[in-house]
Hints:
By secondary structure, the chain is α/β, with parallel strands linked by helices. It is 42% helix and 20% strand. Strands 1, 2, 3, 4, 5, 15, 16 and 17 form an eight-stranded mixed sheet that branches. Strands 6, 7, 8, 9 and 10 form a five-stranded parallel sheet that branches. Strands 11-12-13-14 form a four-stranded parallel sheet. Helix 3 runs parallel beside helix 4 (133-143), helix 3 crosses helix 22 and helix 16 (335-343) packs antiparallel against helix 17 (346-362). The mean pLDDT is 95.
Amino acid sequence: xxxxxxQVVLGDHESGxxxxxxxxxxxxxxxxxxxxxxRAGFAELAESYDEDVIDLSGRLITPAFVNAHTHLSMAAxxxxxxxxxxxxxxxxxxxxxxxxxxxxxxxxxxxxxxxxESLRAGVAVVWEHYYGGTQLxxxxxxxxxxxxxxxxxxxxxxxxxxxxxxxxxxxFDLLANDDLAERGIFPALGPHATDTVxxxxxxxxxxxxxxxxxxxxxHLAQSIEELRRAWQRHGTSALGWLARTGALEARCLLVHxxxxxxxxxxxxxxxxxxxxxxxxxxxxxxxxxxxxGWQAAGVPWLVATDCAASNDGMxxxxxxxxxxxxxxxxxxxxxEQVAFRESGSLADAEALQNRRQRTFDAWPNWADPxxxxxxxxxxxxxxxxxxxxGVIAPGAWAHLLTWDVAHPNFWPGTDVLRTLxxxxxxxxxxxxxxxxxxxxxxxxxxxxxxxxxxxDDARREADARLKLLLARI
Length: 473
């Protein structure tokens, strides 16, 4: 098909972003060509075009969002345990207990609801990591979502220990499934964490990653317990031990990184390794990672949501304002703040304000809308070469969003990129293409997702299965 709009977001985190009139040619699941042109140029292209021609003038076309770390099925656990559950290690103390009772059919039913929420937030691609890999892939196919599915691998601790070989096999069954690949559903290797996966399994995973060109998607240094075990068992940090196993020879997405030192960061290779930051989730289950330290060390990093159980939402765009504010937050916890709080003097207030200004000036591009959007577009979109995403460019997969720029949440639209990064624009989202297929029709996204029989049936099944799961627990 041939699409055109007078407002299309082009470029990436390296070349920069522009908003201009352009025609987009889609062939199958990919973008075949992008031609910046005015309406007359579009009309000329359309004359020789035999397939569908769609004029989307008046709408903004952007890449769809990429949520590079989530657990869709854990939408079922949203609110379970309340705020008190987040005081200590919620993964081990609560989620492992719940997950030991979960069945494969539960995984598919719950993941469908997480997928619908993701689509409604403008997410076309997820990096999913959970138990029941075959069921997760089926849930993506059921709903039209694309993504990389990493069946969780554990052999030391956790609900996945008994399922290790079945989830290993599920990974390679996904690799061999051409039908799923055509829909944009691919495997990744999913070791859970450094304290739940043995050195032998890490080496097995690394060998498979290099042999089959798979990305390793794992949690890293996400709790004090994980770090403590690394020092007790191996005499080094969590990342130090991971390097010792040889796992860093693979292409890796390493998520959370809350307990990473400068010495740890020096072990990472920016050509192979990307760190994942999930701010609103980390604010609940721990505290935010030092992403300014990551940036200073030159390590690529992206923004994702984690799961609805610890985040309460699945929209990566909503994380960006928090990221933008990090440079100002440094002043709030500074020694200058402590001094002013104790003295109340004007001199200490001036020093506190100066601290804010120094941090602001030290990171001049930190809050730039294009840089923020890159962390949910092109940076996660280039993690794995099998499905380049997050850009509107030849060869990229056709994961696109259309926006109603006349919507009040977009008005007045004088700075489109800032609106996309800072505002609440997802209510203005009205069209979505995943892997070259429209979800409904342009202008009808909400009704296509939430007001048809498929969603109603999926919700009823998930409700029933959640009730049975809670009864079993």
